[in-house]
Amino acid sequence: MPRLTFEAHGYELRENESVLECLTRHGVTVPHSCKSGICQSCMMRAVHGVPTAEAIKGLKQTQQADGYFLACSCVPQVDMEVTLDAPELFLVPATVQSLVKLNSKITRVRLQPAQPIDYRPGQFVNVRRDDGLIRSYSLASVPQQDDYLELHVQRNAGGQMSGWIHDQLKAGDTLQVSTPRGECYYRPGALDLPLLLIGTGSGLAPLYGVIRDALRSGHRGPVWLFHGSRARNGLYLVDELQALAERHKNFRYVRCLSGEPEVDGFVSARADAAALQQHPNLKNWRVFLCGHPDMVKASKRNAFLAGAALRDIQADAFISAH
Amino acid sequence: MTQSLYDTLGGEAAVNAAVDIFYRKVLADNRINRFFESVDMDKQASKQKAFLTMVFGGPNKYTGKDMRTGHAHLVKMGLNDSHVDAVIENLGNTLKELGVKDAEIAKVAAIANSVRNDVLSR
Fold this sequence. Notes:
- The structure holds 2 protein chains of 2 kinds.
- The two termini of chain A are 27 Å apart.
- In chain A, 20% of the residues lie in helices and 28% in strands.
- Chain A has helices spanning 19-25, 61-65, 160-167, 204-216, 238-247, 271-278, 293-305; strands at 3-6, 9-12, 43-48, 68-70, 80-83, 92-101, 106-113, 124-128, 134-138, 149-154, 174-177, 195-200, 223-229, 251-257, 286-291, 313-317.
- Chain A is of the alpha/beta class.
- The mean pLDDT of chain A is 92.
- The radius of gyration of chain A is 21 Å and the shape is globular.
- Chain B has helices at residues 5-9, 11-28, 41-55, 64-76, 81-97, 102-114, 116-119.
- The radius of gyration of chain B is 14 Å and the shape is globular.
- In chain B, helix 2 (11-28) packs across helix 3 (41-55).
- By secondary structure, chain B is an all-alpha fold.
- The interface between A and B is small, with 8 and 10 residues.
């Protein structure tokens, strides 16, 4: 087995063990969250030894060249010495401007960063609490229209960060916010293409950002949003979305309830099923998928089989940390 | 030197055009799609891109050993000649859709067939 060295200490790796698992097992604290190579909060740097290809996926060329890699995705094939001097991950303190309950499970958090943050609506930031706990949240705000960062935080059963945000966080408190990342955003330049957005729960957050960004950019093609929940009280921003649909004739908002019978104004189906049923041919569509990982995975496949090009399917699975 | 099939077909752009069509056919083919269900579709697509580059005769780093280790878990799942045949059939139909002539399709199929034994761990 290759050997891992961290702060002059040697550690034996077990078979198929990642750098993150090995260090955590030995009581070393490495910041981390999704453990899936997405949030990048476990970024470390290799001083000796080469990280695996898997561990540098999604990093910038310059970061790769400097030896940075993701500890959660790196199962070392050679001896490695690693350090924790992660690059510019948490530059910006942000003050909580307001907290508003959007429904029983989702709280809207508006943050005022200490300095302007450059982002595209639909990207995500890592939010760090004082004690080092990190979670990723998508941005529902649009920088050209909103002078705050807006997150929709869904309370997860046993969720450390979401529970704390719902129960204890107050206006005026400070959090650290990372550089925004992620591919789930509106790409300008093709104003006539049809857009299909499918979201469940707080997966609406990035989609709300993407939709407003598209409409603000003068998107002319149809923009279809299918937002799904089990029951009616799981939906949110209903008035805002309906108002948006009145102002923009090309925007259509479909509310989907998977656990309730058909009632006026709602479709009784899962959001992804309803979307694919109504739009069975997705050739030349751009598709955005956000929310539950199972929904995102299945929809990606189904959208692809319905004719959407893989590069035109932008997906953001909300992987909950455990 | 004669131009490689890869260049005749249009190089990397042709591969990119072919990947989506090919992958879609494979996923829709009940004879073989269970071997292609992957956690990560993008990863799967990039593997297929490498495969198409190889069978088009383009620049690739495949070795017989890669083919063996890369497919060993599928062989355990029951991968056999009939599945390789189905893949090559889908490949042919993909190329037909892209307007490639039968003679060229036969060349591509011949390259694909040349790795059959490695893929099936024989």
